[in-house]
Amino acid sequence: MTSHDRTTREVDAVDAIPPLPKLLAYGMQHVLVMSAGAVAPPLILGAAMNLPTETVAYLINCDLLVTGIAILIQSLGLGIFGIRLPVIMGVSFAAVGPMVAMAQDPTIGLPGIFGATIGAGVFGLLLRPFFSKLASFFPPLVTGTVILIIGVTLLPVGINWAGGGFGAADFGAPVHLGVAAFVLAVILVVSRFATGFVANVAVLIGLVAGLCLAWPLGLFRLDGLAERPLIALVTPFHFGWPTFHLTAVAAMCIVMMVTLVESTGMFLAVGDIVGRPVDKRTLTRGLMADSLSTLIAGCLNTFPHTSFSQNVGLVNMTRVRSRYVTVAAGFIILGVSLLPKVAFAVASIPPAVLGGAGIVIFGMVAAAGLKIVSGADLGDRRNQIVVAVSIGLSLIPMAAPKLFAATAPDWAGPILHSGITLGAIGAIVLNLLLNSDRLGAGAEHRAADAEPDFAHAAVLDRA
């Protein structure tokens, strides 16, 4: 068989529809791989805002609904939207830090977060003429540093979960630490000795094992589950009309740029895996779908969406290239989004169980950032300064939360109180200042030629 025949066969496989049993099995596999990362952002934000379990459960339903819609737009296509490749979508971890910072401002709240999400979606759509040039501002040095910062700034969330959760009366009790350690141990054992699909769902296995331990210990309670309806629909603007705060929108627009660059690398990688190279037109459709999904997310009570890289790894591992497999996953997720009891059960997972998994999830995000940064020349002093100062800026909200309290205006809170936003701005600006002579070198032709060497940018949501 010639190389041309093999390429034609691979391209045809993208549009092939497997038999229904295989279609459902492959689709469910994608759902399982992305499930832990998909529900983590609503759980983190719910804990930061001390939201009731019912509210967190509703946010999870909204998250899943938009995730299903986004997958269908991306994989099936909708006019000028959608890359029409096997791509899984979900809430981006890059948005978590800025949203937690927004949550600390009582004048913003959930309506302000949703308004910022809508603003970011509109901003992404307006960037369409510049998509091919966007990557030049986010070389591996900047993208890797930002992703490393995301992991580092989220790790305290997992650590606090391991102690029993923010504000727990018995924070640090042996029962919480023991459950978290058990979950972490299960994940490590599965990762070490399992292979293939089982290894890919090690986090999910750890969560289930943790729940089995937490239930008899009285940590996992489902009080109120019986009162939840069997089926319920998500309604737009459930928490009131969105509000728009300048700094909140600005912070989320920075997140949007990061996720678009992340998706650029993701799409180039997927195109290479399935044998359908991504040209500029196809890339634009994919990034437009990311932006449209984020706009829809703000209207349906959830947060910025992006492509999930762990599912790209699953496509590469299984060699199942059909985009209708991810379409099937989208329909499965849509079905689950209609089941409030499932979301309530997920929202009731004890913080200690989440803590054991969170340390792995957020640590893997940081490790993914390290992998990307290693693609830059860290022997270069200028590059070292970009990484060092950016990480230092990102740690300010954790190390000294009140550092800017005496001088900064209230409207600057969503930016100054978010380590991710501070670090991202620092990395972008420092790279522009210190590496201006290298800006754009070899970056603009990547999207045009669909070279897969930029694929390392797509690892943000590996957890």
Automatic annotation (TrEMBL):
Record membrane topology: Multi-pass membrane protein
UniProt entry tagged with the keyword Amino-acid biosynthesis: no
Keywords: Cell membrane, Membrane, Plasmid, Transmembrane, Transmembrane helix, Transport
Spans traversing the lipid bilayer: 31-49, 108-127, 134-159, 171-190, 197-219, 239-261, 324-346, 352-373, 385-405, 411-434
MF GO annotations: xanthine transmembrane transporter activity
InterPro entries (alphabetical): NCS2, UacT-like, Xan_ur_permease
A Pfam family: Xan_ur_permease
GO CC annotation: plasma membrane
Protein family: Belongs to the nucleobase:cation symporter-2 (NCS2) (TC 2.A.40) family.
Protein name, per record: Xanthine permease
Organism this protein belongs to: Methylobacterium radiotolerans (strain ATCC 27329 / DSM 1819 / JCM 2831 / NBRC 15690 / NCIMB 10815 / 0-1)
Lineage of origin: Bacteria, Pseudomonadati, Pseudomonadota, Alphaproteobacteria, Hyphomicrobiales
